[in-house]
């Protein structure tokens, strides 16, 4: 577009010269012919530079658009990294809740074991109560036997043949007492064995549960850390690539901007040269006019041209 405007300006300039050129025809036309041959070459160069400038501006706009797209993509990747960190935090919270749930399960099992201990203690109390009841019964039986023994002694005192029966009764009572003591020891040993077995099973189960929970926690933490590290490394790699592309685009943009400045300087220099050519043409015309006037040719020329003006 700028070359067309310059072209119109050149035409108007020629018309103006024709209007004023009535004052001198022959040599003035020859004086202006040489300068008028230079502008088309300068205009072609200016048009070429203008096209190059427009191309550089278009390419610069495209680079700016590409830089904006990369910036938005980088922001999206930053948001994805933040979302990944949030999800990892949620996963760790989930594992913590799951671990707490397992601890609650262990506590509930401990409560159940406590209930079983209480049940065993209740059974022990019942066995002891039964033992005391049997003991009381045996004591009552012993009293009865002692009464019988007293009666027997009395009768033995009266009847010697009953002495053997007395010895048998005493032996039977001793046997019963030994059985009672033996049963008491057996019940006590059984209770101790049950209690020791229960405590051992409880300890083994607690240890196994702790090991499983610890192993699962370590495995989950390791897996979460690995996933987070992989995703972080991937994001870092993408960020490095985007940063490299962004730096290249910035370098290209700077180069284009410098090229644009050089083209603008060339355009200004061309405009100065063009203006200098126009000024030189005007100076030559004025100098030629002065020479003609000094030789008196200009006045004769004006005299001849005056009828034409009317």
From TrEMBL:
UniProt cross-references to InterPro entries, sorted A to Z: DUF4515 (IPR032777)
Composition bias type Basic residues, residue spans: 1-18
Protein name: DUF4515 domain-containing protein
Domain of life: Eukaryota
Residue ranges constituting the DUF4515 domain according to the UniProt record: 88-278
Keywords: Coiled coil
Record keyword Coiled coil present: yes
Keyword Cell cycle tagged: no
One matching Pfam family: DUF4515
Region (Disordered): 1-47
PANTHER family tied to this protein: COILED-COIL DOMAIN-CONTAINING 166, DUF4515 DOMAIN-CONTAINING PROTEIN
